[in-house]
């Protein structure tokens, strides 16, 4: 499960807009918005793109994308 709340916090602190993040990570803007709003699981390729774009550590990656419990908003 994805910890969407933590992911949103990391995105905010990065200073990137959602459009810029989508472009940099290789994810369609619409897909990124849909995943964030529904709390849906990200595909492996999307996770890789976000990890690179946001420069996440392995610990951050695991906490966000492989959370046992998640908070949607």
The DSSP helix count reads 5
Helix content: 55-70%
How much is the radius of gyration in Å? 11 Å
Q: Given the helix and strand composition, which structural class is it?
A: mainly alpha
Which term fits the overall shape? globular
- What order do the helices and strands follow? HHHHH
Uncertain ranges = none
Main sheet makeup: none
For the secondary structure, the number of strands is: 0
Query: How would you describe the oligomerization state of the chains in this entry?
Result: single chain
Strand content: under 5%
Intertermini distance: 14 Å
Q: Taking all residues together, what is the mean pLDDT?
A: 90
What does this structure look like?
- It is a single chain.
- The two termini are 14 Å apart.
- The chain has helices at 4-14, 18-25, 29-38, 44-54, 58-65.
- It has 73 residues and is mostly helical.
- The longest helix is centred in the N-terminal third of the chain and has 11 residues, at 4-14.
Q: Which properties best describe this structure?
A:
0% strand; 5 helices; 73 residues; single chain; mainly alpha
In short:
With about 70 residues, the protein is mainly alpha-helical. It is built from 5 helices and no strands.
Would you spell out the secondary-structure blueprint of this structure?
Blueprint lengths: L3 H11 L3 H8 L3 H10 L5 H11 L3 H8 L8
Helix pairs in contact: 2-4
């Amino acid at each position: 499960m994805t910890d969407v709340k933590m992911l949103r916090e990391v995105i905010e602190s990065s200073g990137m807009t959602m459009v810029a993040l989508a472009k940099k990570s290789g994810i369609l803007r619409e897909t990124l918005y849909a995943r964030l709003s529904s709390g849906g699981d990200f595909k492996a390729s999307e996770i890789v793109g976000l990890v690179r774009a946001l420069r996440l550590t392995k610990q951050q990656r695991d906490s966000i994308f492989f959370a046992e419990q998640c908070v949607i908003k």
